[in-house]
Design a protein that fits this description.
This protein is an alpha+beta fold. It is built from four helices and nine strands. The chain has two domains: about 110 residues, no CATH class; about 55 residues, no CATH class. Strand 1 and strand 2 form a beta hairpin.
Length: about 180
Amino acid sequence: MLVGILLGLVLLVQAAKLDDASPKTQKPKIEATYYVCRTGDKEQYYTLYVDRLIRGAYGYFHTSSFIQNLAHNKTEAKVKAQAIRDKAGDKGAKIKQYDSARPVFTNMEAFGITMKMSRRRTVWYGHINDKAFWDDWRENKADIKAAGYWVMKSRDSGQWLLFRKVPEEMLKFASDI
C-alpha cells in the first residue's frame, strides 16, 4: 500500500502537462482514478484499487493496483479512500464506486503496438506489424529514439520488434503486481 502511495507522490511531483516540447523534455502526464469496490466471498468488504494512466510522448502505461481493504461500511470506506487519495497527493483524482473487485494489470502501448514487459522487467517489447509505424519511424526517428524507443530484428523469427526501457517509476508500479 505504501509503495503505491509513495510512488504516486513521486510521480505527481515529476508530472507536468504535455506541451509542444521535444520528446526529450516532455514529462509524463499522470491520471489517477480511485475505486472503492465490493469484495470478499459475501461482498462484505470495501476495498481500494487505483488505476493510473501515464501518457508519454509516444505511448502510454496503464496499471490497476490493489491498495488495501478499507472497511465493512460504505461511508467509512469512502472517507478512508479520500484520506488515502489526499495523502498521496491525488486530490483532483476521482473516487468511484465499483460493484466488484478491479482486475489487476499492467499494459503498455505505443504507435498502436501492444507491448509486453520482459521477464526481467527491464524492457517493453512488441512486434511491429504496421506500415504506419515505419513511416513515423522514418519521419521522427531522432525524436522517437530520444523518447527511449529502439527497433531490432528478432534472431528467431526475423520479425522486427519495438523496444523501450522500463522507466524506474513504471517499474515500481509493475512490481506491485
